[in-house]
């Protein structure tokens, strides 16, 4: 008995047709809303490290996101919510004003390991929970 993935057209069509029908039945507005991962990417001109905190670049980025129907931004900001909370808060305010949700993206892959979970909990507490409590 074979243990490989089904790469045949018949098996693929069994899945594709219901998904396609579901997509076609969705309201047009629901099909247009998208999310984006906005990585910190230090040194990259398109990363959040280069854009967030520079008003002209923030405005260009939000205009681009809007043009692409992006409504959720999953942003990776490192420790900037601790070191530069006003900058991150202002960015979140701009996103909200443009009709976008701002979600904090944590991306350290080792946090899934049991020995590193305290570090994950610390990051969640200091970078997200404490930040949000200071914004209430």
User: What is the terminal-to-terminal distance?
Assistant: 59 Å
Number of DSSP E strands: 3
Please mark out the parts with pLDDT under 50 across 5 or more consecutive residues, or reply none: 1-13
The major pleated sheet works out as: 3 strands, parallel
Q: Element order, helices and strands? A: HHEHHEHHEH
Tell me which oligomeric state these chains represent: single chain
Count of spatially separate domains: 1
Give the fraction of residues assigned to helices.
40-55%
Count of DSSP helices?
A: 7
Q: Please state roughly what percent of the residues sit in beta strands, choosing from under 5%, 5-15%, 15-25%, 25-35%, 35-45% or over 45%.
A: 5-15%
Please state the CA-atom Rg, rounded to the nearest Å.
20 Å
**What's the shape?**
globular
Counting helices, strands and paired strands, the structural category is mainly alpha
Strand order of the largest sheet: 1-2-3
Overall mean confidence score, pLDDT: 82
